[in-house]
Amino acid sequence: MKHFISFLLSILMLASCAQKQEAMLSVAESKQADSLALHVALMPTLGCLPIYYAQLTGITDSLDLDIRLLRYSAQMDIDTAIARGHADIAYTDIIRAIRLSDSVLVTSFLANYEPLTMIAQKGKKVKKMQQMSEKMIAICRLCATDYWCEKMLDSAKISQDSIYRPQINDVKLRGKMMRTGLLEGAMLEEPYASWAIMQGDKKLMQTEDKSYQFAIWITTDSLHKDSRKTEQTRKFIAAYKMAVENINKGLYADSLRSILRREYEMPDSVIDSLKLTTIKEPFLPKKKDTEEALTWLSTRNITPKKFNPDTFINTSFFNRK
């Protein structure tokens, strides 16, 4: 009996060791798979919609693209994620990317137009830009919303000093405060601008096709560590383009509704009436926009010391078939 018990204990110990070894291998494989995945920092704006869509509708799976979404509502949180090495790809604008370059090496490889709209609160009975003098306009400072707010005020010949511009970085919060009458005005991204207009707020000006481009950029350090990630980045571009095409064709409408409900926190009543702006096909970032951003930053006495305009735009991913 003692021999049998000893034999049984030996079998159980071997089985336990085998299970532990198998679990360790599974964890190791999981870590390896995770290390090869592209970690993408994004936020609920129109420019990020194709990425949410590509993952939910299986476009990424069809391209064998493994992406892990890091969800944020404020651009400064995305900046932190990329600076600390948590993200491989992040959604931002050229102004912020240039400023970030002093803390981490980044290059831009894909851009798209992100409509920005100047919205006035319905209770103020403002009908045109000139009436926004002495009003409050919420923005995210030192980024595209700040840049375009200034351009719009200049076009209406309104003194910059006559406008109070509180900094509200969270895009969802800025939209909510606008819709609930807590702001006199705001620069809003889509789809929050359309939501506010549906609630009765007034659209004063929109960037439309002249929108200062937002760029999707990547840390070069991350790419150089593993060549397989560079191939994943090319697949990322392909997935983005496919998603834009399918969204504009109206494919998988239920998936789109689900994204707007879950990621953008929009109610069904608004989603049912929402008419999304046609998403334009992405393009390679433009040098002239980088130069304009640098000029604008210089007017604020901000000169990034480590930024290199000659290496900022990475053409290798976009042009390679």
Describe this entry's structure for a reader.
The structure is a single chain. The protein is of the alpha/beta class and 321 residues long. The chain folds into two domains: 185 residues, 3-Layer(aba) Sandwich (D-Maltodextrin-Binding Protein, domain 2), CATH 3.40.190.10; 95 residues, Periplasmic binding protein-like II (D-Maltodextrin-Binding Protein, domain 2, 3-Layer(aba) Sandwich), CATH 3.40.190. The protein contains 15 helices and nine strands. The strands form two sheets. It has a five-stranded mixed sheet with strand order 2-1-3-9-4, sandwiched between helices. It has a four-stranded mixed sheet with strand order 6-7-5-8, with helices on both faces. Helix 2 crosses helix 10 and helix 7 packs parallel to helix 8. The longest helix is centred in the first third of the chain and has 35 residues. It starts with a helix and ends with a helix.
Task: Describe the structure in brief.
With 321 residues, the protein is α/β, with parallel strands linked by helices. It folds into two domains: 37-114 and 213-319, 3-Layer(aba) Sandwich (D-Maltodextrin-Binding Protein, domain 2); 116-210, Periplasmic binding protein-like II (D-Maltodextrin-Binding Protein, domain 2, 3-Layer(aba) Sandwich), CATH 3.40.190. 49% of the residues lie in helices and 14% in strands.
